[in-house]
Design brief:
Blueprint (H helix, E strand, L loop, with lengths): L8 H13 L1 H12 L8 E6 L4 E6 L2 E2 L1 H5 L4 H4 L3 E6 L8 E4 H17 L7 E4 L5 H13 L2 E4 L6 H10 L4 E5 L2 E3 L2 E3 L1 H9 L7 E5 L13 E3 H7 L9 E2 L3 E7 L7 E6 L1 H14 L7 E4 L6 H13 L3 E5 L10 H9 L3 E4 L1 H9 L3 H4 L8 E5 L5 H11 L6 E4 L33 E4 L5 E2 L4 E7 L9 E2 L3 H8 L7 E9 L5 E6 L3 E4 L2 E4 H9 L4 E11 L3 E10 L8 H15 L8 E4 L13 H8 L16 H8 L3
Parallel strand pairs: 4-17, 6-7, 6-8, 7-14, 8-11, 11-12, 16-17, 16-18, 18-19, 19-20, 30-31
Antiparallel strand pairs: 1-2, 3-13, 4-5, 9-10, 14-15, 15-24, 21-22, 21-23, 23-25, 25-26, 27-28, 29-30
Helix pairs in contact: 1-2, 5-6, 5-9, 7-8, 10-11, 13-15
The structure holds adenosine-5'-monophosphate-propyl ester (PRX).
The site of adenosine-5'-monophosphate-propyl ester has 21 residues, from helix 11, strand 20, strand 25 and strand 26.
Length: 635
């Protein structure tokens, strides 16, 4: 057995060295020994970051669902693949074995085929965290359709934009969703979105909340009767290594969301390998990632990575606060969770509630704790370590992105000594670089700069759907021959990395990436608004919250500011979703601009963060006088 399971630090260094000295040999061995191929590759890797073009395992043929499901049927057919934990703790959890998963994915795949979906077609999945979500994802992969999962908290406008961008043929949704004590009318949102979409031919509707909804004749179909009638086996479509597996949208600092395209073989190999090592998953473990499958974390580390390893993965439909803040710990105890992976924002929200909830539960099953999505502050790290892991469960602070497909910088549990707030070391095969403002790589330790990756890794996104130029401009133009992450980082005296945050206009709120431009566009649609600028400011629980500076047209003057604030947030909710609502809105007579008309966000950020001691050089501003006015009226 080669290097598949790393157990201590020396082994990490040894395997790491091998993986960067001879990446092709290294990845070939991993791919060869641990996955099921219909045909082996002709070439392990070809790449050219100037185009950019990256191909892994070219010539290979496979189906990822054979790796995630079929091959386990012989050895672990009766093992639980997915534990579904419903929103309401009184509703029973569902244990889906690998055999049952096979049956359900095949039936779903046959339903899709019957509705005219084939290889290469795009299917939009807009579902809550119910088994049908994972099953739909896998069913698409079974038949070679490209899934585009849209987080079910996005608004109808956001959904329509995503459906149209990739011209999806089908939407899979449900009659509604539960979220704590609330229900959400998902089908209503889909109906509204589809008024703006021409490409959708059919809508499949799962029943979840039993609400009375409208079904459009000829277009909408209840899912369950179709599944009941479908055949329980489905021959997998044989895919080429570089065939697209899915599209997942992520916000950019400007323009519409970017449909990141992930392909099949490299994504499979890398997510499976990282899952196994980072979390040190063992055969009998129960693993739980609290993310939503609507985000990359859910794709890679609820569905593909765990299932590829034959793991038991928990899917939780609800929220951490329902029926009370003890819910996570209740689930850990109930399912004897061994690996628990969540976001800093959830840890901070739980920490605020104190330890009473924790003390009521037996958390002794926990072996490894993970975090992802944003920098974790020291206080939250220690709270997690002391109270949840009782100092016995290593914390893996995993840094990665929608674009990277899998975890990039992270401790390997039990192998890498952890350090609060540090994502620590590059994962096997990952070659990070810190860059200075002149585009030069900063060598050595105890330095900080902009984080790039200088060599391809198997699960990197290959393009932006329909816009390869934008892919190149966004990720491969800032620095020569390197992938630019958009993050800043520092490297300490032993080579550990700490991610310091975004260096562009993306703001991470509660672990969700939000681009400023789409929010500003939404605000500017308000008839009374002339102009707006959004910045982030530190927030105890969300990490960052949004602060909007808004200038009004003459028609808006004299209007009640509180009403305007409500209307602006309403517009944002409609255009994007409630996650993008602003915490603070300040009305001002102008925005600080450079002589070329660019808004000086740096100054606005400082004012929003109440860090006005040194505003830097304001002399180059076109209108320096507005700075004082904004400071005087800051919220
Ligand atoms: O800024 C980094 C932050 O989240 C960004 C990626 O967001 P997204 O594509 O939504 O993917 C999130 C889940 C993988 C990164 O550019 N980020 C993610 N993980 C960490 C982090 N920042 C600090 N520490 C992390 N562990």
């Amino acid at each position: 057995m080669s290097n598949y399971h790393i157990k201590h630090l020396e082994e990490y260094y040894q395997v790491y060295r091998k993986s960067v000295r001879n990446p092709e040999v290294f990845w070939e061995e991993i791919a060869e020994e641990h996955f099921l191929w219909r045909k082996k590759w002709d070439n392990v890797l070809s790449w050219d970051f100037s185009k950019p073009e990256v191909k892994w395992f070219e010539g290979a043929q496979l189906n990822i669902t054979e790796n995630c499901i079929d091959r386990h049927l012989y050895t672990r057919g009766d093992k639980t693949a997915i534990i579904f934990e419903p929103n309401d703790p009184k509703e029973e959890a569902e244990h889906i074995t690998y055999r049952q998963l096979h049956d359900r994915v095949c039936r779903m795949a046959n339903v899709l085929k019957d509705k005219g979906i084939g290889k290469g077609d795009r299917v939009c999945i807009y579902l809550p965290m119910i088994p049908e979500l994972a099953i739909s994802v896998l069913a698409c992969a079974r038949i070679g359709a490209i899934h585009s999962v849209v987080f079910a908290g996005f608004s109808s406008t956001a959904l329509a934009t995503r459906i149209n961008d990739s011209e999806c043929k089908m939407v899979i949704t449900s009659d509604g969703s539960y979220r704590g004590a609330k229900t959400i009318d998902l089908k209503g949102i889909v109906d509204e979105a589809l008024e703006e979409c021409n490409s959708i031919e059919s809508v499949l509707v799962a029943k979840r909340i039993n609400s009375d909804i409208n079904m459009k004749d000829g277009r909408d179909h209840w899912l369950q009767p179709l599944l009941d009638d479908a055949y329980h086996d489905c021959v997998p479509e044989i895919m080429n290594a570089e065939d697209p597996l899915f599209i997942l949208y992520t916000s950019g600092s400007t323009g519409k969301p970017k449909g990141m395209v992930h392909t099949t073989a490299g994504y499979m190999v890398y997510t499976a390998y990282t899952f196994k090592n980072v979390f040190q998953y063992r055969e009998k473990d129960v693993y739980w990632c609290t993310a939503d499958i609507g985000w990359i974390t859910g794709h890679s580390y609820i569905v593909y990575g765990p299932l590829c390893n034959g793991a038991t993965t928990v899917m939780f439909e609800g929220v951490p606060s329902y029926p009370d803040f003890g819910r996570f710990w209740d689930i850990v105890e109930k399912h004897k969770v061994n690996q628990f992976y969540t976001a800093p924002t959830a840890i901070r929200a739980l920490a605020k509630e104190g330890v009473d909830h924790l003390e009521k539960h037996d958390l002794s099953s926990l072996k490894v704790l993970g975090t992802v999505g944003e920098p974790i502050n020291e206080e939250a790290w220690h709270w997690y370590d002391d109270n949840v892991g009782k100092k016995k469960a290593p914390i893996v602070d995993t840094w990665w992105q929608t674009e990277t497909g899998g975890i990039m910088i992270t401790p390997i549990a039990f192998a890498t000594p952890t350090k609060p707030t540090y994502a620590t070391l590059p994962f096997i095969g990952i070659q990070p670089a810190l860059m200075d403002e002149h585009g030069q790589e900063i060598k050595g330790n105890q330095v900080d700069g902009r984080l790039c990756i200088k060599f391809p890794w198997p699960s990197m996104a290959r393009t932006i759907w329909g816009n390869h130029q934008r892919y190149k401009d966004t990720y491969f133009s800032a620095y020569d021959n390197k992938y630019f992450t958009g993050d800043g980082a520092l490297r300490d005296e032993v080579g550990y990395y700490r991610i310091t945050g975004r260096v562009d206009d993306v703001i991470i709120v509660s672990g969700h990436n939000l681009g400023t431009a789409p929010i500003e566009d939404a605000i500017n649609e308000h008839p009374a608004v002339a102009e707006s600028a959004i910045v982030g400011f530190p927030h105890d629980i969300k990490g960052n919250a949004l602060y909007g500076y808004v200038t009004l047209k003459e028609t808006g003057e004299g209007r009640d500011h509180n009403n305007l604030r409500k209307e602006i947030n309403q517009l944002i909710t409609e255009q994007i979703g409630p996650i993008a609502k602003l915490d603070k809105i300040q009305f001002t007579n102008g925005l600080p601009k450079t002589r070329s008309g660019k808004i000086m966000r740096r100054i606005l950020r400082k004012i929003a963060s109440k860090d006005t001691g040194n505003l830097g050089d304001t002399s180059t501003l076109l209108n320096p006088e507005v700075v004082q006015e904004i400071m005087d009226n800051a919220l």
